[in-house]
Amino acid sequence: MECVKLEKTDLMTNIAAPETIDAFFERLTGEVDRLPKRLKQCADYVAANPDKVAVSTIAELAEAADVQPSAFMRFCQEMGFSGFSQMQKLFRSDYSQKWPDYTTRLAKLREHGTDSPSALLAEFVDVGRASLENLITTVDPDALQSAVKALAHADTIHLVGFRRAFPVTSYLSYAFEKMSVPAILHSGIACMSMAQLIQKQDAVIAVTFAPYTQETLTIAGLAKDRGADLVAITDVVTSPLARIGGTQLLVSELDVGAFRALSASLSLAITLAVSVGAARERI
Amino acid sequence: MECVKLEKTDLMTNIAAPETIDAFFERLTGEVDRLPKRLKQCADYVAANPDKVAVSTIAELAEAADVQPSAFMRFCQEMGFSGFSQMQKLFRSDYSQKWPDYTTRLAKLREHGTDSPSALLAEFVDVGRASLENLITTVDPDALQSAVKALAHADTIHLVGFRRAFPVTSYLSYAFEKMSVPAILHSGIACMSMAQLIQKQDAVIAVTFAPYTQETLTIAGLAKDRGADLVAITDVVTSPLARIGGTQLLVSELDVGAFRALSASLSLAITLAVSVGAARERI
DNA sequence: ATGATTTTGGAATTTTTATTCCAATCTGGC
DNA sequence: GCCAGATTGGAATAAAAATTCCAAAATCAT
What we know:
By secondary structure, chain A is of the alpha/beta class. The first copy, chain A, is 54% helix and 10% strand.
């Protein structure tokens, strides 16, 4: 392995920068032996702490690797980047890879006219997978546990969620029925409110995502006033539903264009239902 | 080293900055109602994308939240920080914690206790992902294409699916309504059949999985007899629904115990809806 | 409507951070 | 031990980012 150096154009000696983290590490492994001491220190540090690169300044990294900032800079260039900033950009985007910008991706798909149904399906599958992965970080195990507890002790469980949230509540309704757990699906048929059915010893599962459905908020508020337990399934902490109180279960679902996947919400719902069903058997 | 301004005590503006992400969100929840429009936009964006805060500049975040950088700055101060940098520091320290990958986090959820709700959640998430991956291979692109074509040319689209399939049809109903596509959800309310509404020029999306719902099969058969187009979403080729004819879209959903995930079916449904919506616009 | 008060957008300023440069220091071959 | 080339440290500079400031716009109470 002799080092071939192209002295030619000292200007553009750029051997394309790695475009993925994998490519970066591949290159790093190949190069690490022929790096001088200080640069090797950088390599070792980055290999051991890849996550730090995204959120630190070059000075911090240099200090942590026990090296001068300029040395770290040279390391970045040695790896094919124009400098630290470019390398950091790669590390930052790799993290957000789980949160890609599907909205613009879809727009791109559209303008190319290649929006075949199967391409769209691939998008939704991708988004669904990402949402599911995300679900396990946004849902707090303790909150889930206490939601189950509250629901297991309720006389009757009320299911409240309309429009986009209706698939979630209707699925819950199906699951509870199958397990003989007394649950009422607030269906909104004939615009009749079933809110007055909610008793103190009952519990309510309310589901709504932005833009929030007023009716759901109203019923949830009413339930809280009556002293019923409330389990709120919504998207973010700033959601009006989350602020009513009760146990919050947060699901941030990604969307493709104007439509949100429901995979994560449904998975959370069925988990809740099955856990409650099991818990009630034990009582 | 923090210089705490104490001279101007016009308000209790010197509340200590949140020291954990949880404290931050708690504060955010309490404060969000007080915030004016632009600042609330910041709050919503941060609540929905906490991860982005760690790896973006204030300008990037401001743009994403559709706000001026100075507004975002004010938001940070409103939350008790001296400025954006201090707030970012908090988010950055939290960032490293959640770097472990999907598999690791999943394992962590599982070890919470075998029959705990979170273990079950891990299970459903896993199964959902697998179902989604499977979906890509089981759905035939040509079948999907011709389903879209049939639905795009229909006068009215009828949505038929009960019990476990009802979340799918109700979601379709929501999506079609949003896109102003004429669709009727056969709800089965009061056991009234809406089958007689189906006309020759209409199309029917029928959804049922084992054990198949008789009512769905009946309506699908009737639709076929009348000469309406039929799109069948079901699990296997041997399903009685598939044997009625029409375009088949097969979804093999995995299950956890007695309960099947719905992620794949929902994703297929929304794909169908969006494709049909787009196709009808082009006509 | 009217004026007072809050909120906002955008440019100006300050601070921080990345990058370059070069002299000092190593290293290995003779 | 000396030289040539490679490597390093640290100061100097450039670039980018955060923060402040203030006039314009919006909102509110009267």
